[in-house]
């Protein structure tokens, strides 16, 4: 049986690497005695698959992972989010759990775009609005980065699906995850090379199913999820 979890990541734990996050969940599975299936071979590993990696230092309201449970076992999925949250560090809270089809595509394959909220430093509100308007109107936005040791250039404009200044020096955006993922830092530098991210928060991840837009898994009362350590407005 495949189970998908939705969880938040906030506060000090946002500086945890993706590898350390995986270890935290493995410990939580052991502490809650969750019957996770393991791979075979000389070094068996739990059958757990994480979604898109979150930039180190970024918070998130919508992270996901898939895991496989031992065949024939039963688990109360209604109680699982609370059980796992108690076994995880402060700042990681599991908000939903549900079974998914064994043939469902992986999160890496399914997620087509992500929603983000960013705090920007280096410009005032009016200046930021002007710069964002320029990005929206631009036919292309070419950025340069290193990939596998080589310097490559990409036009990220097609991957900026939505962008707006929401208040003060904060922006909300939707960035493509496929075929080429656009990173929040790349967007900020495209707005202006002199700007920096004061903070970054992933607000959602989107998938396409038979032409319809949805999320990998709805959180329980997602509209009211509060991030530990979130900044006061």
Explain how this protein is built.
- The chain contains 5 helices and 11 strands, in the order βαββαβαβαββββαββ.
- The chain is elongated and about 60 Å long.
- The longest helix is centred in the first third of the chain and has 14 residues, at 18-31.
- The chain has 2 domains: 2-104, Alpha-Beta Plaits (2-Layer Sandwich), CATH 3.30.70.580; 110-214, 2-Layer Sandwich (Alpha-Beta Plaits).
- 20% of the residues lie in helices and 36% in strands.
- Helix 1 (18-31) packs across helix 2 (80-87).
- By secondary structure, it is α+β, with helices and mostly antiparallel strands.
- It has helices at 18-31, 80-87, 107-110, 125-137, 184-191, and strands at residues 2-9, 48-50, 59-68, 92-100, 111-121, 142-147, 150-155, 160-167, 170-176, 196-209, 212-214.
- The relative contact order is 0.21.
- Strands 1, 2, 3, 4, 5, 8, 9, 10 and 11 form a 9-stranded mixed sheet that branches.
């Amino acid at each position: 049986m495949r189970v998908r979890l939705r969880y938040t990541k906030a506060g000090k734990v946002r500086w945890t690497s993706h590898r350390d996050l995986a270890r935290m969940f493995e410990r939580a599975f052991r502490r809650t005695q969750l019957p996770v299936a393991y791979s075979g071979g000389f070094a068996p590993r739990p059958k757990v698959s994480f979604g898109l990696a979150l930039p180190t230092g970024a918070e998130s309201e919508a992270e996901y992972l898939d895991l496989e449970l031992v065949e024939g076992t039963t688990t109360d999925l209604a109680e699982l989010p609370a059980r796992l949250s108690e076994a995880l560090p402060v700042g990681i809270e599991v908000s939903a759990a549900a079974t998914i089809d064994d043939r469902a595509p992986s999160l890496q394959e399914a997620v087509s775009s992500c929603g983000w909220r960013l705090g920007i430093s280096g410009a005032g509100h009016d200046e930021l609005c002007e710069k964002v308007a320029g990005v929206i109107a631009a036919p292309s936005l070419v950025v340069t980065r290193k990939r596998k040791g080589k310097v490559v250039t990409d036009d990220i404009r097609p991957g900026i699906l939505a962008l707006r200044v929401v208040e003060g020096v904060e922006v909300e955006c939707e960035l493509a995850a496929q075929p080429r993922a656009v990173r929040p830092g790349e967007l900020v530098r495209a707005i202006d090379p002199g700007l920096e991210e004061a903070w970054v928060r992933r607000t959602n991840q989107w998938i396409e199913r038979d032409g319809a837009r949805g999320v990998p898994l709805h959180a329980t009362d997602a509209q009211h999820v509060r991030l530990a350590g979130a900044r006061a407005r």
